[in-house]
Amino acid sequence: MMKAKWYFINSGPCRPSYNMALDEALLDFHSKGEIPPVIRFYEWNPATLSIGYFQSAEKDIDLDAVKAQNLGFVRRPTGGRAVLHEHELTYSIIVTEQYPNMPATVTEAYRVLSEGLLVGFQNLGLEAYFSVPDTEEKRADLKSPKSAVCFDAPSWYELVVEGKKVAGSAQTRQKGVILQHGAILLELDEEKLLSVFKFSSDKVKERMRKKLPEKAVAINQLTSKKITISQCIDAFRDGFEEALDIELVPYELTSEQLEYVRKLEEKKYLTDEWNYRK
């Protein structure tokens, strides 16, 4: 049987507002039937703190620390908690909710789409597996997270190696289309990560400092050989092809599509109204 053809875009390092505008634009193009499903890889220039759609920038984030370290800042269209994007490969998947055999529930669709990540980690020689919260306390944490930090704890079906979270993802559904994107950590600067969050006290911050290495880990903390971004791109591209039984076809946006992205970036992701609301 012929495999379904999906588009593949490797954007490389981009500014934060452009990254989010392009993800949303691809969702729009797919919803109109202009393009097939897409898998996109990208990086961030400068290093950026992204916050979830529902988060309060003022309440959760030390915005002075973000500015002092020349970090980018953007609100995602997806939920979830704040992520510091620095030494990582970010992926996004855009696919219709009506795609063959796509589960209707968010959690199960998340598992299906994240199979590509699972195979990708295995391609890098890592024994990754899906997290399934196994106690009432862990399940309660999912409904009411204890902190604003994404890598504080794994959610349903997030990727774990040696009991620690190695990828954080978030999802939104708009116009009948699923957008799932997430961070695959190559390195983790714990001090920089902690520096951009507000904590109720120094004691709470210190507790998080001790907990974080037990909860999250980066690829290059798990391997003796340093894994590069290009090795990650190969491993995860192949992982998505295998897990989703698809063929990825390289794609470049048309000038009209790029103009659409630019306008969306300008009217939304570059504005204080979007990024700092709530």
Automatic annotation (TrEMBL):
Coiled-coil positions: none
Q: Which domain of life is it from?
A: Bacteria
Name the pathway it acts in: Protein modification; protein lipoylation via endogenous pathway; protein N(6)-(lipoyl)lysine from octanoyl-[acyl-carrier-protein]
Q: Which UniProt keywords apply?
A: Acyltransferase, Ligase, Transferase
What does the entry give for GO biological process? lipoate biosynthetic process; protein lipoylation
Q: Which family does it belong to?
A: Belongs to the octanoyltransferase LipM family.
The record's EC number reads 2.3.1.181
GO MF terms, alphabetically ordered: ligase activity; lipoyl(octanoyl) transferase activity
Misc remark for this entry? In the reaction, the free carboxyl group of octanoic acid is attached via an amide linkage to the epsilon-amino group of a specific lysine residue of lipoyl domains of lipoate-dependent enzymes. The reaction proceeds via an octanoyl-thioester enzyme intermediate.
Self-association and partners: Monomer.
Against HAMAP family, the record matches this protein to:
LipM
> What protein am I looking at?
Octanoyltransferase LipM
Q: Which organism is it from?
A: Ureibacillus endophyticus
InterPro entries xref list: aa-tRNA-synth_II/BPL/LPL, BPL_LPL_catalytic, LipM, Octanoyltrans_LipM/LipL
User: What's this chain's function?
Assistant: Catalyzes the transfer of endogenously produced octanoic acid from octanoyl-acyl-carrier-protein onto the lipoyl domain of GcvH, an intermediate carrier during protein lipoylation.
Return any one Pfam family short name: LplA-B_cat
PROSITE patterns linked: BPL_LPL_CATALYTIC (PS51733)
Q: What lineage does the source organism belong to?
A: Bacteria, Bacillati, Bacillota, Bacilli, Bacillales
Cite the active-site annotation.
150 (acyl-thioester intermediate)
Which of the seven top EC classes does this enzyme belong to?
transferase
**Ranges of residues in domain BPL/LPL catalytic:** 33-248
Marked site positions, Lowers pKa of active site Cys? 165
